[in-house]
DNA sequence: AATGCTCCAGCTGAGC
DNA sequence: GCTCAGCTGGAGCATT
C-alpha cells in the first residue's frame, strides 16, 4: 500500500488543514469583536458602526441592489400611507422619473393643480400642521399625480411633514392607474454575478 | 404506580403537544410562503414586501430604536464621506438639533459663511455639478458647522447633490470638535420594555 | 379606475393577509415556548426534548439521510482514532457489510487472527485496560480487516473499551487499501424528493 | 483641536481596522470552502467531514455537554419507543449506572427475571425476529428494571434488535417509578464557562 | 429583565 | 427542473 495516497491519510490531512484555517478564523473573529468592544467603550454605537462597515464592504452591484430594494420598499410604504413623516429618498424619486410625460404640459397642470403651496411652506417648523393639513397634502399628491405631475414636483420643501404626505398620495395614485403593477414598482435588472467585480475591488 | 403522574407519560404528552403546535406552525409558514409567491407572480418585489411587513409589525419602541440606529449610522456615514449622494434624512437632522446655540448669532454667521447658494441651487438638475462643486460644498459644511450653523441650515435644496456633501462636511466637523464623542453620535435612551405595548397592539 | 384591480389595493391586501398569518404564527411560537418552559420546570432537559421532537417530525427519507451521514461520520472518526470510547453504532456496522467476501475463508482468518479475546472480554468492567491493551486492540482491528474479517466480527463485547479501538483499527485499514476512497466512505443514494411522503405522513 | 483624538478620525480608524480584519476573514472562509470542495472531489462526504471537524474542535467541556445531551435524548427516545433498532449507546448506559443497588441481589433477580435469553441471542442475524419477539424483549426490559436490574444488564448482545427493545422497556419503567422525573433524566452539572479551557487547548 | 452571542432553519440565487 | 450552497433572519441560551 502506498503511504500518501491512502484515504485515511488524506482524510487526516483534510481535517487538519481545515482545523488550522478555522482556528485562524476564530482568532480573527475574536479580534473583530475586540475592536467593536473598544468602539463601544469609546461611546460609539456598535450597531450603527456595523452598518457602516457593511456599507463600506459592499460591491457596487450589491449597493445598487440594496438601493433598488430600498426605493421600491419606500414606494410601497408611501402607497400604504406608512411613511410616517419620512419623505421619499432621492433614489426613490429618481426611480419614478423615467416617464416624464410632456413636461411643458405638466407645468401648466402644476400651476393649476397646486397653485402656491410654497407660500405656506416657508415655515418649516415641525409640529405646526394639523392632521387636516397633512390630509390635504396627501389629497393634493393624488391629484397632482393624476394631473401628470412627476414625483420630483413635490411642492413642499424637505423637512415639511406635508412633503411625505404628498409623496404618499402620489404613490398611491400611481399604483392605482389601472395598470396591473406599475413599472416603477417592479424590480428591474437582474442582479448580475459580480464575483469578478468583487476581486477587482 | 400512578397513571398520569409518571415521567414517561408526561414526556409523551409534552412531545405530542409540541408536535401538534409545530405542525400548525409549519402549515402557516407554508401559507405565508404561498402569499409571497402570489405577490411575486403579480409583479411585486418580495424583498421589498417583506420589509414592508416587517415595518408594519414593529412596535412603537422597536420602530424608535430602528430609527435611532439609522440616524446614527447616517451621521457616521456622513462624517466618513460615504453618503454618496443621498443626503441626511429628516430623522438624522432632528437628532442633531438639540444644541441650538444662540440662534441670533447663527443667523449672522449664516449670512456670512454661505452667502447665496440658493441662487445656484435653483437648478436642481442632477449631474451638472463638478467634483469641485461637491468639494466646495463639503468644505462649506465644515465651515458652517464651525460657525455654529445647525444641521438644518443646509443651504442646498433637496435633490441637489451638494446637499449631501454639505451634510458630510458638517458631520465631520461636528465629530472633530475635541469632544471625545459628541452627544448626537451616541445612543440615547434605554429602549424600554414594551412587552405590554405589544399586547396592547 | 376599478376598485379591486389596482396595484395599491392589491398591495394592501397582500400585506394584511401576511400580517394576519404572521400573527398566528407568533402565537403558536409563544405556545411552543410555553410548553418547553413547562417541561423544563418539570425537570426535563429541553435541549434533549427538542432533539426528540425533531426526530419525531422527520420524514422517512430525512431520517435515512441523517443516519447515513451519521454512519459515515463514525467511519471517519474511527479511522482518525477519534471514537474515544464509543464504539461504532449498528447503522455504521451495517453500512460496512455489503462486501462480505468469502465468508468461509473469513472464519478461518478469524480463528487465527484473533483467537480468544472472549475469555478476556468476560470482565466488562471499565477502566481496567491499559493504553497498551487499547493499542493492541486497535492493531488487531487493522490485522483482522486485512485478513478479510468484517466489521461485525469485532471480538470485543459492547461496553469493552477495546471494542472501539478495534473498530478504529478496522476502519483505518479499510480506508487505506489503496482504493482512492472506499465505497462505504461515500454517500450513496440521492436523497429523493419526499415532498409527497411528507404529505402522506 | 488635536488630530488623532477627534471622534471623526477615531471612527475612520475603527472602520478601517474592522474592514481589514473582515477581509482576512473572508479570505480564510474562501480557503476553507476550497478545502471542502477538494474533499468532495476526492469522494468524501462533506457533511460528515464537517461533523468530524466540529468534533475535533470541541473543548473537553463542550464534548461532555454534547454527550450528556445525547445520552438524555436517548433515554427519552427509548422511553417513547422511538429507538427504532438502534440500542442505547455506552454513554447513555453509563449515565444510568450511579444507583447500583445491591449487586449481589441483582444477580439473583437476573437469573430469575430473564433466565436464559443468551441461548437465543447466539444467533445475531438481523431480521429473524418477529414483532412479538421484540415486544417480549421490551416487556422483559420493564420487568428487569422493576426487579432492580441495571441498564448494563441487557441480556441481548449488540446487533440483536431485541437489545434496543429491552432498553426501551427498561427506560420506560425507570421513568415511571412514581418519581417526578428520575435523576438520570435530568441535566446534571452546570456547563461551566470554559473560555480558559479553550485557550489552554 | 434585558442584551449580546451562537446556532439553526428557512429562503434565495446559482449551477448542472 | 432540480439540487445545492450561501446567507440572512430569528430563536434560544447564557450572561449581567
Feature tags:
homotetramer; 201 residues; 0% strand; DNA-binding; mainly alpha; disordered C terminus
Set down the secondary structure blueprint.
4 copies of one chain form a homotetramer.
Chain A: H1 7-42, H2 46-57, H3 60-79, H4 90-95, H5 103-113, H6 117-121, H7 131-146, H8 161-174, H9 195-200
Chain C binds a DNA duplex (16 and 16 nucleotides) through helix 1 and helix 2.
Offer a concise description of the structure:
The structure is a homotetramer of 201-residue chains. Helix content of chain A is 63%, strand content 0%.
How would you describe this structure to a colleague?
Four copies of one chain form a homotetramer. With 201 residues, the first copy, chain A, is mainly alpha-helical. Helix content of chain A is 63%, strand content 0%. The first copy, chain A, contains nine helices and no strands. The first copy, chain A, has helices at 7-42, 46-57, 60-79, 90-95, 103-113, 117-121, 131-146, 161-174, 195-200. The longest helix of chain A is centred in the N-terminal third of the chain and has 36 residues, at 7-42. The first copy, chain A, is elongated and about 75 Å long. Chain A starts with 6 loop residues before the first helix and ends with a helix. Residues 105-116, 118-124 and 191-201 of chain A have low confidence and may be disordered. Chain A binds chain B through residues 42-45, 47-49, 51-52, 55-56, 69, 72-73, 75-77, 80, 82, 85-87, 89-91, 93-94, 124, 126, 152, 157-159, 180-181, 185-187, and chain B through 42-45, 47-49, 51-52, 55-56, 69, 72-73, 75-77, 80, 82, 85-87, 89-91, 93-94, 124, 126, 152, 157-159, 180-181, 185-187. Chain C binds a DNA duplex (16 and 16 nucleotides) through helix 1 and helix 2.
Amino acid at each position: 500500500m502506498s503511504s500518501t495516497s491512502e484515504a485515511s491519510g488524506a482524510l487526516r490531512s483534510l481535517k487538519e488543514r481545515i482545523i488550522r484555517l478555522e482556528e485562524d478564523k476564530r482568532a480573527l473573529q475574536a479580534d473583530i469583536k475586540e475592536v467593536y468592544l473598544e468602539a463601544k467603550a469609546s461611546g460609539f454605537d456598535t450597531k450603527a458602526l456595523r452598518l457602516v462597515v457593511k456599507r463600506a464592504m459592499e460591491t457596487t452591484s450589491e449597493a445598487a441592489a440594496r438601493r433598488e430594494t430600498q426605493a421600491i420598499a419606500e414606494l410601497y410604504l408611501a402607497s400604504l400611507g406608512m411613511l410616517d413623516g419620512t419623505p421619499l429618498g432621492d433614489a426613490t424619486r429618481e426611480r419614478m422619473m423615467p416617464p416624464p410625460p410632456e413636461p411643458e404640459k405638466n407645468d401648466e397642470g402644476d400651476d393649476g393643480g397646486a397653485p402656491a403651496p410654497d407660500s405656506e411652506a416657508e415655515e418649516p417648523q415641525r409640529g405646526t400642521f394639523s392632521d387636516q393639513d397633512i390630509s390635504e397634502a396627501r389629497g393634493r399628491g393624488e391629484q397632482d399625480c393624476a394631473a401628470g405631475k412627476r414625483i420630483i414636483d413635490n411642492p413642499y420643501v424637505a423637512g415639511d411633514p406635508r412633503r411625505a404626505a404628498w409623496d404618499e398620495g402620489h404613490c398611491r395614485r400611481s399604483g392605482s392607474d389601472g395598470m396591473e403593477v406599475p413599472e416603477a414598482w417592479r424590480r428591474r435588472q437582474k442582479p448580475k454575478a459580480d464575483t469578478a467585480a468583487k476581486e477587482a475591488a
